[in-house]
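new request in #modeling-help
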Amino acid sequence: MPSFDRRRLLQSLALSALGAGIPGCERSRYDLDYLEDTPDFTHQRAPHYFVFYFLMGGWDITTLTEPRVKGARMSPSYKPGAIFEYGGHRLGPAMQPLVRHMDQMAVLRGLRATALNHPQARFQLVTGKFREPRQAPAASIQTRLADLIGRDYPIPNLSADGLRPATFLGDYDPHLEPFRIGEMYALRGLSRPRGPMIDQEDVVFEALRKRDAAYVAKHAESAMAENFAASAELARQAAESDYRWRASEFVAPRFKETANLEHKNRWGYQVHLVVEAIRNDIAPIITAGSGEFDAHNEHDYGYHQRAITRSMEAVAAICDGLAEHRTADGGTLLDRTTVVISSEFSRQPWINELGGKHHWDANAALFLGKGVRGTKGGLTMVGECDEQLFPQPLNPVTGKPDRGADDVTNGHFLATVLAMAGIDPGPHFDQSPIQGLIA
Amino acid sequence: MGPALVALVASAPAHATEVFAKREDVSCETCHDNPAGGGPRNLVGLYYAATDTLRSDRDTPLAIEEMGNVVQGWLLEVAATPPEIIWRYTTLNGLETLPAPAYAAVTDTELLRRLSLDLRSDLPDPKDTQALLSGDTTIEALVDAYLDSDDFYWTMRLYHRDLVRPRTGIFNQTASLAPIRTIEAADGKKVWRSDYRAGEEKRGSCDAHSRVPVAPYWARHSKVQVCANTASTLRYVGSDRSIDCATEQGQKSGRCGCGPHLLWCYRSDDYGRVKRSMVQEGARIADEILRNDLPYTELVTADWSMWNGRLEHFYARLDGRLGELDDPNVERRWHRVERGPEHSGVLSTHMYLNYFYNGRRWAQRTFETFLCHETVPDFELLDEVSLDHPISYRTHPTAMADVNVNSGRACAACHLQLDGLSRVKDRWDNFGQYYDTGFGGDAVPQTAIFLGQEVDGLSAFGEALAHSEAFADCATNQLWEHLTGHRFRPEESALRRELVAGFVASDHNFRQLVRTMVLTDAYRDEANLKTMERELYQRTMRTLLKQKWSVGDKDGFDRYYDKVGGMDYRRIEARDRTPSPAYSMVQYKAAAELCAKAMESSEAPLIKGIETTRSPNENTLDAVIDTWFLHTYVRPAAQVSDDDRMLFHDVFRQVEQREGPQQGYMAMCTVMLASEDFALY
């Protein structure tokens, strides 16, 4: 796990100013050769793509993986008839949009959120750790994956959820800096300036490199000057690679619109971005999601189920879009992609004094696609909550409930994600992956 | 010396952990709702917390009744006990202190650029630069001029908006009064109708002969056509006149009109306008303080606030005073509004209570904004501080108090900090309403111990906070970060003490603090580099090129900068100042596009006087480079290096050779504005 090495970046920058290398990350190499022959994007650089879809704010899992009927301490937002059964499992109504992908899906229930305030729970969700006082958050799962499988990309780590991207750099180098962009159109726009300047970039970039190098030399003691120069150089490298071309070569969204999910709303833009970014091999790690999603009061909770359903429709549309594209080996892009869906925690079973639902620690996560243990004609389900919606301990190896076992926490969840990519989670997380979820 | 812990109380907290289950030889679910333990306690668990006793007859009806009585009495006692406000703070005397380093000072002109960007959010006027170089003015005189400029107040509003950082949407149950919108009447005309009067068009009251012209609150000098029932101005309706139409209940009855100027209803798109005003409320209080040289402490003590017309209207709704609002004018400018003695500046504004809408969220923001304390699970603090009594917490003034969450270390490590402070706002709800009494008609406890002093409620807390060293130190530290890019370091501890002491001695004169800081050697240090933020790019590029960057119908910086900023979500709420490849892409795109557009305009200061279609000779090109360096980097000709001069000549000539002189200038301009030299200051 490399840390950010300023000296190395500086050396690379100097080399780059002479046109002699890739700055910042010696493992970066933008191999364009194969692209000459394969404009149909059937060859992808990454062996494995990851899509993280987070419903930031805390979802009510009774609408998804833990359906309940109304009772003394239980206030679901739907009628009992909305609960449906699939593969022998009872599911809440918001799972409906995912039915067509369920045989490629695994569900982790009984996940315990160890923090119930948004910031810490979000750090936990993607880093498996608390944020320490006065320190930056640890590297998120997206950054770790970008380091391990995304070094060949100019910008390996995209986040389409502009409001709450929940992806953190930790002490990794700026090459892995999560890049927050809301839509394909914006990515195309950002990757290239309009107007005549683009034809003079060779001259301008050379001049900028010289000037930035001189600036860094003048401010030799300044980390800010170094970091800035390294970042600027990465941006120029992206512009000089095939990045612009890839960011421009997208097709219009094709997913089926619903009352919630439109081609031209925030969630539809994200679907489009995710599918096209993978199809055009722009980045291997992409984070998308709901933006803000809290529901403490009657007003917000009134929209909650609809918002969850919209997110599940978006996930289904992403999967549809990826499944639609054939790769050279005869598979689909979904076969090369793991889609991970979760939220930082869930919501109390009952309605609170404001007419909404406060936070609750029983959580769940959904996995879909590559590396996920599917069940033909069914649904893989691991872990559980009790009737009162309390998470039950689980043995991560056997996948069975076990009162003597530890709680299943985000460490297990994130270790599982790495294991799905065939990566040993040991150096990253203290917890074991949950075997029953892994193909 | 290590950090000073404020508030130390003896004895151990009543943690509900497996330890207790083992000690009593019972399962966790004996005391907890959750069979696995932790989380909310049941009656037995609460009784155990109250008495340290586990009754063997706990399942009998008599025991349940007795335990209920004991627990209720205990909760009341807990609620009546003033909690300590606990956070980690190092006093000025306890700060680690290292010797001050030798500062490498920037040149006068570099300093001028920094000052102008920090204080005015724009580049200096070249005339000021020339005056400074010729000795006609001094840095001190220019600082004073900057501190008197409107741009300074604009900058400080932005600064304070970031400090308070309102973020989430309006918590708008009560605000959801009758929406009013246009419908198409039978004759095809657009007519306004309240949603709670849906169907009146079918009864003919929106027809040409029935509808009424009304000057609406959002445009008092024009008139719109309104359906007759919607236009009704009757305040009280119903057979016994018991329905008050200026209330939410009245509107929901479906028997009310929208009142004079349609004041009791609202347009759905007002939501965004109100929100934009709310975001500014705290910053406008700071603005008023700075403009009038009031003590900065008023930020947390003032019994007044700053509202514009939109807030007057919206807050009247929240306060249930719509009926008393006799001159609604949403276009009214920001002005001072006197409030009651229970108020405490920003802390009790509708905005602050609404955005940070429960006690803990309010406490978290208050800690961070006014005490520079970030609430994170601090296990060391948890180990160092122990409570002999749980802290009670209420979600709403009218709700019964609950005991704090201390059932696990991870929870207790934050609640230890939050629950004590939130006590002082227990009488305020999230809509900014104040309650003397709450659940059961009893007075709502609002007393806590702050720095050893008992403070009774929000206004007393505001007073105590305002006069604490912690507040003055925090305000100084935050301003230092704005100006230097970093919080005080150990080698700046002596300076920090001096600045805080001066700030307090000046009766917390913030403008004077700014002046003192920017004239220190430490501020002038070459190492204090910061990146420009979105607003600085917008303003400086507009100043240089007279161009506003737009992408489609949206502002380019809003569209891109917000998307590509930092990833830490706390940094998104403020504006990010961390370099990233995406940030550089935005800078380059802005420079390339604006420089190209500027070539077509003779108004751009950089282009003025240049015949861009004619090839310049070397001397002319030199003169252009000199002028541009002066405007862009505030660098006089003598300070332009030969390397730079040669580089820009090369850029110009190479591009000129390909595409002509105009694009040569465009390329030079892009290099100037896209370089690190421009972004860092």
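bot summary: Chain A touches chain B through 89 residues (CB under 8 Å).
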